[in-house]
Design goal:
single chain, Double Stranded RNA Binding Domain, 3-stranded antiparallel sheet, alpha+beta, elongated
Length: 92
């Protein structure tokens, strides 16, 4: 009955965004975020991690097909980690 209310594209975006937060062990003490959007079959997810004082900010973006939303969310997390997100997160 509720399936009619579910929008598949919105669900994909939300799941990918949450995956980034979980992968980075996000909490309420460190600024981090992810935003996903879909246009046609193109999936774009953008994210950032920042130090609480804002002196360090890391941005990243990943693009691909909307069917790969899970892989793209994981990929964005890895890019942020490779750019030093874990260092920022562990110093907070």
């Amino acid at each position: 009955m509720l399936a009619k209310l579910n929008d598949e594209d919105t669900a994909r975006c939300v799941l990918a965004e949450r995956l980034v937060s979980r992968s980075l062990a996000g909490s309420c003490t460190v600024p981090l975020g992810a935003y996903a959007s879909i246009s046609n079959d193109d999936f774009i997810i953008k994210g950032f991690v920042a130090s609480p004082d804002g002196t360090q900010i890391i941005y990243a973006e990943k693009k691909g097909n909307k069917s790969d939303f899970y892989k793209l969310g994981k990929g964005l997390s890895q890019i942020l980690i490779d750019k030093g997100a874990k260092d920022i997160l562990s110093s907070s």
